[in-house]
Amino acid sequence: MRFPLLPRSPQHRTGAALCLAMLAAAPPAIAAPAPQTKAQVQAEIWAKEQAIYAARGAGNLDAYIANVATDYAAWPPYATAPTGVAELRAANATMKGQELLEMTFTALALNGDTAVIYYQTHRTRMPDGTAVDQRYDVIHVWVREGGAWKVLGGMARPRKG
C-alpha cells in the first residue's frame, strides 16, 4: 500500500530528507518570555514606580518618560483633563529637584499583560522647595509592550482624611 504523501522516487526521498535536515538545523524561533507570577509582576512594577518617583525627587522625569506605553494618557490631580507624554516632557524641562514624596503600596490587579497598581503618596515638599502636606491616592495602568512593562495611563486624587 502506498501513502500519497510519501516520496515515491529516490530523488523525492532525498529531497524530503534534506528538508527535514534543514528544519532540524534551523535556529529556534524566538521564545516568548516566561510567564511571571503576580508577585514577580508586582515587584517589577513597584520597583519601576519607585524609580520614577526617586527621579522626580531629583528633578527628572526621564525615568517616567522612558516607561510610558504607546498612546499614554494620565489624569494628574491638578489637571482638568488627562495629559500625555508631551506634558511630561514640558514638565521635565522645568523641574527643579526639590520634590519630596513617600510612597505606600496598596494593591495590584493583574490580568494577562495588563496590571493596575494602587498606591498612596505623601508629598511634603513641592518641586519649587515649598513645604506642603499633600496626600494622594494613585493608580497606574501598566501593559506589557514589546516584552517590557510600560505605563499606559493613570489617575491621582487628593486623599481624604
From TrEMBL:
> InterPro entries recorded for this chain?
NTF2-like_dom_sf, SnoaL-like
Tell me the ranges covered by the SnoaL-like domain, including all copies: 51-149
Q: Does the keyword Nucleotide-binding apply?
A: no
Gene3D superfamilies with a match to the protein in the record: 3.10.450.50
Supply the alphabetized keyword list. Answer: Signal
Tell me the leader sequence span: 1-31
Q: What is this protein called?
A: DUF4440 domain-containing protein
Organism per entry: Novosphingobium ovatum
